[in-house]
Amino acid sequence: MKKILITIFVLIITFAIFSSSYVQSNILNMLIKSGIENNQIFPEEDALSVLVCGSGSPLGTAVAQTCLLVKAGDKKYVVDIGNGSVNNLMTWSSDLLEDINGVLITHLHSDHIADLGDLNLVTWVTRDRKQQLEVFGPEGINDVVSGYNLAFSRDSNFRYLHHGNQIADPLTGGMTAKEIEDGSVIFEDDNLKISAFKVFHEPIEPALGYKFEYKDRVLVISGDTRYDSELIKSFKGADVLFCEVISPDIVDRFIKVAEQQNDAKLKKILVDILDYHISPLEAVDLANEAGVRHLVYYHLTPTLPTEIRFLSDKFFFAGVDEAIENWTASTDGTMVVLPSSSKEILISEIN
Which positions fall inside the Metallo-beta-lactamase domain (predicted)? Predict the structure, then answer.
């Protein structure tokens, strides 16, 4: 009885404390502070690092659409910028968007460019951007960037009129398009080389993948592609290959549901997407042939809720364990670090 009375007394005192306006106000202040604190996400050591800011696809809204943030030494590049990815980056740490050197777009599907307007805005108004945001991409990127600049032109002017030059300098607002193609070198200095290569996503042409070579480490990003043995030469020598992936098994299950619901349009879309993406085991074949040291799956199609990944991944990646030793199925917040002058491959989750 005495223990029960003590427990009740403690609960009453606790309730009284948390009912206090003073305590509630301080809790609110703490929550606000934690929401805008600039947490250290990338390692301080010299490395080639990748943060998955969007691992999903247009099919499913459980996570953000395709986005990778690559940091090579002191340089940062965003590779694709799908819906929800900017919110992820801002939630994790606004410092992630400081000093972005450029955006690399693999192809012009909406789920790879949907957050481009927001990325431009937050790197301009909330970060100390020194110039217009450079956006690299295949033929057609000029139209995309011009369209975004036009769509956001009034918003940009309003922010200048409201906040002035110190916050919204018109000279650094907006984006500049840089059209590239197979074999283009986006950036090169003594430590870092970024190059583009052709991938196979017909009828979406051209479509590109990207290779980052930083000191003695190599990262390759496939972009969206079907299987083709020509990819082996582009993937060769990679410490880590980020490869997009589709699960024919899971898509077939969706097709059966679409048939049951007489949804001919959804069925048509699901059938069509099977021929221009790469399956988990096809990605393994390419990675093994190219001598890739670690395979990371991203841009999972279809995207299933995170809460059931413990179940769905068993079917999504069936047979992968038997075919390759070192692999990871990413989600939003997966981080890969390749320290320079090392063979280490460090994989973690920031969430």
Answer: 64-277
